[in-house]
Design goal:
The chain is built from one helix and twelve strands. By secondary structure, the protein is mainly beta.
């Protein structure tokens, strides 16, 4: 459930910041990069740049090992901790309380050092903001 709340928050941030219209704060900067897990492109995950102090959170989907956040939805200049989430089906299902249908049970596929207790960092500035992350996951 905690993961669903996190995904919901990211979706809300994306929707709220889609156009950038009416925003009068500090400059925002585009973010881009590649994410691999054990040298393979990560697909179907989410990346979030969360400010250490002040600033705007930013993030989006990782597809085919790449992410791209346009400036209108980007981050302000500053230090960020980076969380990457990759929810994968467990092969089990449960009954959805709202619809009564069966839904897949998902589980975080990455260790906490890449999300809840992240070791990933980024320093956003006025230049190119490309951040590549090579994640290593041991069985």
């Amino acid at each position: 459930m905690k993961h669903l709340v996190w995904v919901f928050c990211l979706v809300c941030l994306a929707v709220a910041g889609c156009s950038g219209k009416g925003y009068t704060g500090d400059s925002r900067y585009a973010l881009e990069g590649e994410v691999t897990v054990n040298d393979e492109p990560l697909d179907g995950a989410m990346i979030a740049f969360l400010p250490n102090s002040g600033g705007r959170p930013a993030g989006g989907p990782i597809l085919g090992g790449k992410y791209s956040v346009p400036a209108g939805q980007g981050a302000n200049k500053g230090s960020y901790r980076v969380e990457i989430r990759w929810l994968k089906p467990t092969g089990k299902q449960r009954k959805d309380d709202d619809t009564g249908g069966m839904v897949d049970i998902v589980k975080e596929a990455l260790p906490p050092r890449y999300n809840d207790k992240t070791e990933l960092k980024a320093e956003v500035g006025s230049g190119e903001n490309r951040f590549d992350f090579a994640l290593v996951v041991t069985p």
